[in-house]
Specification:
The protein is mainly beta and about 350 residues long. The protein has one helix at about 5-30; strands at about 35-40, 40-50, 55-60, 65-70, 80-85, 95-100, 105-110, 115-120, 125-130, 145-150, 155-160, 170-175, 185-190, 205-210, 210-215, 225-230, 240-245, 260-265, 270-275, 280-285, 290-295, 295-300, 305-310, 315-320, 325-330, 335-340, 345-350, 355-360. It has 2 domains: about 1-30; about 35-360, Neuraminidase. About 5% of the residues lie in helices and about 45% in strands.
């Protein structure tokens, strides 16, 4: 069938209208295309050193791998195998952890017997070597839940769930300082008067300025809420733990979800966590804010910009608090988020045994 000039014009006009409406729908739903698959692996975790280099660590079976970026997450190196750790914990926030400082990066990983292993990278020569183990009582960390951070002067700090003494989970801490061949004597930070903290939720640790903060999900009077404690002397002394938020969660079981924390430029601690299937955020001494529904949340902060990620029904979501904008990043679980140079945000997550990432 031949089209007249008027008919051709009408068809083009209709096509333009359809394209406009389709683009408007995409814009309003704020959906971002799925993250790029880096390679097969699980439980990605990243750290940024003082020069801006990004290093990502993840596990595959019993092997620990790393990739790195020197262009703020635009591209990554080929994977490098750090070590093989027989019977390594991997899954549900149990995986290799990484922290970076001025001259070194450090990775911790846990075996199912309850030992925290460590591996150190010297930035000047690019070589990974085995470092001293973290827990000074063999087999004291069978839950496999540890977190790691560093300051800018090559001091590293770890927190984990530890069952030494009475086989009940407690919050333990240790640090590794320049020139020291071993970690400091392990320090009991908190034990619940109800015998145990939440036994399957990963604790968190963050350092900024002169403030070191630990957060953990407590088990107190039948409630499983997020608490935090801070130190301004590199972990020698900690404040009395305080609860985040106003609500509480009475629960006969473990949610297996430890949330996340950051220490801001103003020295205030911010946290994001799940309670009863809802995601909450609050800054220290401020009211909590409802963010959405889901689990497996984390956050990053650069100046006044706070970004939160979480999993909702198998989808990874990201919210920018400054603009109240929510994006869908793709399918997966256990997201992590990091503030990188240029006002960008790097998000990592796991999807069907692959490491995914998105730079926003």
């Amino acid at each position: 069938m031949l089209l007249t000039n008027a008919g051709t014009y009408n068809m083009k006009l209709l096509l333009l209208i359809c394209l406009f409406l389709f683009g408007t729908v995409l814009f309003n739903t704020a959906t971002v295309s799925a993250g790029s698959s880096l390679l097969s692996g699980k439980q990605p975790n990243a750290a940024i050193d003082t020069k801006g280099a990004i290093r990502v660590v993840f596990g595959k079976g019993n092997d620990i791998y790393t990739i790195s970026s020197t262009d703020n997450g635009q591209s990554f190196s080929e994977p490098e195998k750090i070590a093989t750790l027989p019977d390594m914990h991997l899954g549900m926030s149990r995986g290799p952890q990484i922290a970076s400082s001025k001259n070194y990066s450090l990775v911790t990983a846990m075996d199912k017997a309850g030992n925290i292993h460590a591996y150190q990278l010297k930035h000047s020569n690019g070589k990974w070597t085995r470092a001293a183990g973290v827990n000074d009582v063999k087999g004291s960390a069978p839950e496999g839940l540890v977190a790691l951070t560093a300051d800018k002067e090559d001091n590293f700090y770890a927190v984990w769930l530890d069952t030494r003494g009475d086989k009940k989970n407690k919050i333990f801490f240790s640090s590794l300082h320049p020139g020291k061949g071993s970690w400091s004597a392990n320090k009991l930070v908190y034990t619940s008067p109800d015998q145990t903290v939440c036994e399957c939720c990963k604790p968190n640790i963050a350092f900024h300025g002169d403030k070191l903060t630990i957060s953990f999900r407590n088990w107190l009077n039948g409630s499983r809420d997020i608490y935090h404690t801070s130190s301004t002397d590199k972990g020698k002394n900690f404040t009395a733990p305080q609860k985040f938020g106003q609500g509480t969660w009475k629960l006969e079981g473990c949610p297996m979800d430890g949330g996340g924390i950051v220490v801001g430029d103003n020295g205030l601690v911010s946290s994001v966590w799940q309670r009863k299937g809802e995601i909450f955020y609050c800054q220290e001494n401020q009211p909590e804010q409802l963010i959405g529904t889901g689990r497996d949340c984390a956050l990053a902060q650069a100046g006044a910009n706070t970004v939160i990620v979480w999993q909702e029904k198998g989808q990874i979501k990201l919210k920018k608090l400054a603009t109240n904008t929510t994006l869908e990043l793709g399918h997966g679980n256990t997201p992590r988020v990091y503030a990188v140079a240029g006002g960008k945000t790097l998000c990592l997550w796991e999807d069907a045994g692959t490491v995914q990432h998105k730079l926003i």
